[in-house]
Amino acid sequence: MAEKVTVASDWLCGCAGCHMSLLDIDERIVDLVQLATLTSTPITDLKHPSKDGVVVGILEGGVNNSANEEVAKTMRERSKILIALGDCAVFGGIPTMRNFAGMDEALRRAYVETESTVDGQVPHHEDIAVMQECRPLDQVVPVDIYLPGCPPSADAIWFVLSELLAGRMPELKGKYLDWH
Ligand code: SF4
User: Which of 7, 10, 34, 77 is the most buried (most CB within 10 A)?
Assistant: First the structure.
């Protein structure tokens, strides 16, 4: 039996919707686990790819803070092929709307001025720095495959994964490019 392809995924600044769409491949998940080993994902015990690396790395979300940047660089270093999954990873997506307001105003609006907030404070963590701007993934690390959509359809995700598992680089076109 052929050796299984190792696959890891993680999320940066996103809403988890792209991973929900990945789970929407439904019964094709059985085919996936027959051909691939999911080494680390946000929904497995192991959260980050091991130092041995993986064949396919998948990242959802934009790069919004120093923790996102570290996760992106680690996934890039440890993946032969890196997929930017969804509009936030491909273009920056919805999180980049904060770039129009500037970081201080966006943080104040989100954590202090929100109508439902009482005595709000901008959170602070000494190990995490919020970036001046949220960026798409390829402004931080090189990307091999861009899979747009908010989220990309389960069919598009399955097409990309099944092509990679068959040893081919997927050519995304037509119905798999969801530009709505
Ligand atoms: Fe969520 Fe859409 Fe961004 Fe995916 S692309 S993380 S579904 S907002």
Answer: 7
